[in-house]
Amino acid sequence: MAGRIPAQRSAATSRTRPEEPAHALRVPDGPLLAANLKWLFTELPFEQRFDAAAEAGFAGVEYAAPYPYPAPRLRELLRTAGLRQVLINSPAGEPGSPERSGLACHPGRAADFRAGIERGLEYATELGAGLLHVLAGIVPPDVSTERAFATYVANLAWAADRAHGTGVRLVVEAQNERDAPGYFLRTQARAIAVVEAVGADRTGLLLDLYHAQVTEGDLVRTVRACLPYARHLQIADPPDRTEPGTGEVRWPRVFDALREGGYEGWLGCEYRPAHGSTPAGLGWVTEVTA
């Protein structure tokens, strides 16, 4: 269920080339960049970050929780800035609550999970987001790994059926123990096992390069093994979750692996600018990717 990463599948079904706006910020010979508005441009109020992202050259945005804002308002912010909504998360509970990282692996909570998926799909379709990250949740203390796995798979299968025909693809993400204590999807192998159980034609992997490096290391090997399942990537440099080139990863080799694997989706910039200013730190896009 959560051992080694399975043998590679064909990457053909996992590739989704986004439309490329003129002068869009992208890795040379690589993916378009999406600004994560929870992490970038935080010196500005949230609604002002859309225009700031566009002015910096981003073609798309992502953020975990759109739900405090009316969807029509967010759609207008996207339209005015000329941005594409790439990804949102499914709803989660309040900080500090047992549901703070979702509840998809919580037995007996199917009704709550389904209500959250309905809301997530409503927002995703309203905003034009092609990806909905279905949060797995923190495993309750009295629930075994096997039961949590079965619960998550059953819930995700229902959600995939519900998403069919909406234009929204569901993705799952492994998160490291240091940043997300107790989160059910700890390794890429377990995340891929979930994808395989539900159906790789109906779900996919959100491969977060930061989480993968913190948990497993050997990032080039991990990218090569996981890329056939990947529908979306996110990036930050350990140990401080800052922009690439400020930490421990040798990024040129990683980007070579992405090019060799033919990845054609988006790359979400989910990092904390090392020196406070997002635009000042964007030199990494050309400096550490070749």
TrEMBL record:
InterPro entries: HyI-like, Sugar_Epim/Isomerase, Xyl_isomerase-like_sf, Xyl_isomerase-like_TIM-brl. Residues 50-286 form the Xylose isomerase-like TIM barrel domain. Its EC number is 5.3.1.22. The keyword Isomerase applies. Keywords: Isomerase, Pyruvate. It is an enzyme of class 5 (isomerase). Residues 1-24 are annotated as: Disordered. This is Hydroxypyruvate isomerase. It comes from Streptomyces formicae.
